[in-house]
């Protein structure tokens, strides 16, 4: 239903998107800013992400840029800070759009069970933060970027993502195909509230017992993290290190532990409003062999 309306009528597309957003809210939408860790993440980078950045359709760069510009226009009009265009996030977004075209699905979770949080953690090797995502597809028409934006703005869940005050970065990635004889575009907005970045990318694969050195710099005057953690798919802590402040960054050496599996790296951040609490911010996945 969504695809039929999206192709043929902008006004019906708005109604359909709003209706689907309401259904998603009633049944438990995955539009929340922090998605749960997949219980059984795959042992290696999926093919759709392994080629991220190598198959970007340059013919779509204008559409992607126009969506980014229009997104920031909507944010300015509501008093929100404009988002930084993030090319790495755009590569992940474009990979998901291409994957939807190639494997003929339309969802935040791909057929491998990976949502935006997992896909970002697998590919983005330097950033710690929380993500959210908007998707849409429609047939070619005048002012295509504006049609995408207005569709999202007329859906409460998607509008909330687009205007979320704590988001800092946005990657837009699109793909095109022919469906029903019509040129059709799939577009993904991948938002991130970037907490901190690493001076050097984390390796995707390491040996058990290998030491990883980190130099982690918070963004936007955020507090320094106090610990770096290696967490398994159940959320259990496998290893950790206390980070030391140095020249405005948090520095440490973590010895990664087995058994062979895929683990999520996280940082522990003190809650400035309550000294008894802390926040856990997710980062990249690392496979220990």
UniProtKB/TrEMBL annotation:
Domain SCP: 72-190
Family matches, as SUPFAM superfamilies: PR-1-like
InterPro entries for this protein: CAP_dom (IPR014044), CAP_sf (IPR035940)
Top-level taxon of the source organism: Bacteria
One Pfam family matching this protein: CAP
CDD domains assigned: CAP_bacterial
Name recorded for this polypeptide: SCP domain-containing protein
Organism this protein belongs to: Methylovulum psychrotolerans
């Amino acid at each position: 239903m969504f695809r039929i309306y999206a192709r043929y009528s902008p006004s019906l597309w708005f109604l359909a998107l709003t209706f689907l957003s309401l259904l998603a809210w009633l049944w438990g939408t995955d539009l929340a800013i922090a998605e749960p860790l997949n219980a059984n993440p795959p042992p290696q980078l999926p093919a759709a992400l392994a080629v991220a950045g190598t198959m970007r359709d340059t013919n779509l760069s204008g559409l992607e840029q126009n969506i980014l510009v229009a997104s920031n226009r909507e944010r300015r009009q509501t008093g929100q800070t404009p988002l930084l265009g993030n090319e790495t996030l755009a590569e992940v977004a474009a990979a998901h759009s291409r994957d939807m075209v190639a494997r003929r699905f339309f969802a935040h979770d791909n057929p491998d069970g990976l949502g935006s949080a997992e896909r970002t953690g697998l590919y983005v090797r330097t950033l710690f933060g929380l993500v959210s995502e908007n998707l849409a597809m429609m047939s070619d028409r005048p002012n295509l970027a504006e049609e995408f934006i207005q569709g999202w703005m007329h859906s409460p869940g998607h509008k909330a993502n687009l205007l979320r005050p704590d988001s800092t970065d946005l990657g837009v990635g699109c793909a095109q195909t022919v469906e029903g004889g019509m040129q059709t575009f799939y577009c993904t907005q991948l938002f991130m509230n970037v907490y901190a970045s690493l001076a050097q990318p984390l390796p995707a694969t390491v040996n058990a017992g290998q030491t990883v050195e980190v130099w982690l710099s918070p963004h936007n005057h955020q507090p320094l993290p106090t610990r770096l953690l290696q967490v398994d798919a159940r959320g259990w802590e496998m290893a950790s290190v206390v980070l030391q402040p140095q020249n405005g960054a948090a520095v440490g050496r973590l010895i990664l532990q087995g058994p062979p599996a895929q683990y999520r790296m996280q940082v522990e951040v003190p809650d400035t409003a309550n000294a008894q609490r802390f926040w856990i911010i997710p980062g990249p996945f690392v496979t220990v062999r």
